[in-house]
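Supplementary Methods, section 5.1.

A reviewer requested that the exact input to the structure prediction be made available. We therefore reproduce it here, unchanged from the version used in the analyses.
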Amino acid sequence: MPVPPKRALHPLLLERGYWRNRLEELRLTRLSVLLIPRAELSTGLVEVDEFRIRAHDGIRLFGIRALCRFGPVLRPARIRCVGTCDLPDIDTGAVCRGAAEFVFQQPAGRRLEDRVLDLLRVFQLAVSSENIDPRNIELVVPDGGPSPDEFLIASQLVQDEFNR
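The structure derived from this sequence is encoded token-by-token as follows.
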């Protein structure tokens, strides 16, 4: 899960023992996905669905998933999150180049741990989607700014999982 340039995180934020139980809880909690076609956002080239998934703690996360109707058999994916006051929108250029895009709205007032697990939940949704390459999922930082801590932690946890 590539992430824009990294900065140093406190080592305790990546402590495997701390994350072990949380990741196990995430694995055991059913994904519970609802996909709603969004015809008004779709085009002849891009198919858009609204998704609703249950977070590890029962909170509903929602966003949009966009796929190019024509593209590679195994496609890359991008995950972005938007703030609580912003509506999820798609990067049509990236989708038309063959990437699937998952954009979700981050609920207000979430702790860092919950934000990390929310990202990993959307990652699970991407991996479970048809024709998505799980080794080619990118976390996209809004406005190309510095990577938030939750992006850095989630990418490290996913990398550790793939390197097992």
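The mean pLDDT is 85. These observations are discussed further in the main text.
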